[in-house]
Amino acid sequence: MDYRLKLIGYPIQHSLSPWIHNKFLERTHLKGTYTLHEISPDASFDENVLTLKKEKVDGFNVTVPYKEEIIPYLNMLDDTAKQMGAVNTVVYREGKWIGYNTDGIGYLRSLESKYPTFFQNKSKRILLIGAGGAARGIYYALDRAGFDCIDIANRTKASAEEIAKLATLSSNTKVVSLKEAEEGIGNYDLIIQTTSVGMKPNVDTSILSFSQVKENAIASDIVYQPLQTKFLKEAEKNGAAIHYGHTMLLYQAQYAFEIWTNQKVPMDDLDLQLQTILE
Ligand code: ATR
């Protein structure tokens, strides 16, 4: 089998996905290619998707701004993609185009690879900051993994409330303001930053202050450019353990590759290799 894999989105010229998936192909000794298929906003999305389908690619990733737009072109969605209303991975299987969303599981895997013991107690208190697509995926994965003490804080409270609707019945999910989250920061065992605040080059503020953070709490930022966000620097300075954003990128790709090829790639030192590229 010669796997033909692609990435669609715009802009994608600087995407790290080809680097990651080519490493996976090397590591698994599978034959194949992972290439970019950029679709400019002026082009016809319809025609581009039809081209991909005609080319009979085996699978593709979908990134911004097409994660929702792709859905009507698919024959089936897995449960997570349905709940997210967004697809980042498509596989061609037995004549059908099937959509998945690997972000949430990717996040969990990345956390588990670095902090396996965190998963031993599902009553750990978690603060999720932000309420965009990534936050939604992470919330859903954490909730379904059994974590039942999650607070969601977002600048716009209504979006956090939308995410809280995904909660299973036994969950103690609460929506809190950013101010309340900051005041109660010492209560949390894991604090996850999913907003785009840390990506803005000229913004030198963290989304909240860590001065009261609990010792041994984990601070996790899904932003990976820069690798060392202000959020992580502040957290580390105040004694928290750190979880970098690029690891989520790697593990959501690992899960996508598994969907395409049925092979779970051993990650070994890939996170350090990617870290070196990003530093
Ligand atoms: P994605 O889907 O990639 O996760 P998004 O939908 O653009 O990204 O979500 C961005 C998140 O960053 C949102 O939670 C947004 O808060 P709002 O819902 O209030 O817009 C948050 N965000 C962006 N800029 C922010 C800022 N300056 N301060 C606080 N939150 C911010």
Q: Your description of this structure?
A:
The structure is a single chain. With 279 residues, the protein is of the alpha/beta class. It has two domains: 2-101 and 247-278, Leucine Dehydrogenase, chain A, domain 1 (Rossmann fold); 104-244, NAD(P)-binding Rossmann-like Domain (Rossmann fold). The chain is 35% helix and 19% strand. It contains ten helices and twelve strands. The chain has helices spanning 17-28, 45-54, 79-84, 103-114, 133-144, 157-164, 178-183, 230-237, 246-261, 270-278; strands at 2-9, 31-38, 59-62, 76-77, 89-93, 96-100, 126-129, 150-153, 174-176, 190-193, 218-221, 241-243. It has a six-stranded mixed sheet with strand order 2-1-3-5-6-4. The protein has a six-stranded parallel sheet with strand order 9-8-7-10-11-12, sandwiched between helices.
